[in-house]
Amino acid sequence: MGLNPILLVFIIFTISIVYVTLSTVRMILMMKGYRYLAAALSVLEVIINILGLGLVLENISQIQNLISYAAGFGAGIIVGSVIEDKLTLGYVTASVVSPENSDKLSKQLREKGYGVTDWETNGHEGKRRSLQILTPKKHELKLYQTIKELEPQAFVVANDSKTIHGGFWIRTIKRGRLFNS
């Protein structure tokens, strides 16, 4: 190909990072229901991957190119995971079981802007309070920290929420008023 060997190693490394990062973003988009955007991104992803592999295979006798591609793949996983943390698309539903059968935790969370549905439940050791809390994924860690501060003994399980419809809280989010007070 005639490229400077050091430049070629750098190009292969960069292409590999971009390919793996795009792959990670594509998977996130698919999981969140953005099928068409994910499909469009996959076209770009394949083109970039073929370019990178082509450079490696064209210069297969130079081991540094193969190592560069593999190292770029590993670095791409790290970059992709950082981007995944930054994208934080969607919502999380947290199910919380409070050891106290009181609406104190529910009220405190509502005052902080969270949408909370609560009800009395029965646990192994008697009456408890169950809460269901919906929050944007970008506020997930803040929610966990808040629960831990307010009710350290609470049991928390969280899941990504794919479909949401209705409720006063969704209108609050759409108007941009969550956590702004």
TrEMBL record:
Residues 24-80 form the DUF5698 domain. The keyword Transmembrane applies. Keywords: Cell membrane, Membrane, Transmembrane, Transmembrane helix. It holds the Pfam family DUF2179. The chain crosses the membrane at residues 6-29, 36-57, 63-83. The keyword Zinc does not apply. Its main location: membrane. It is a multi-pass membrane protein. CDD domains: YitT_C_like_1. Belongs to the UPF0316 family. NCBIfam families: PRK04164.1-5. This is UPF0316 protein B0H99_104235. It comes from Planomicrobium soli.
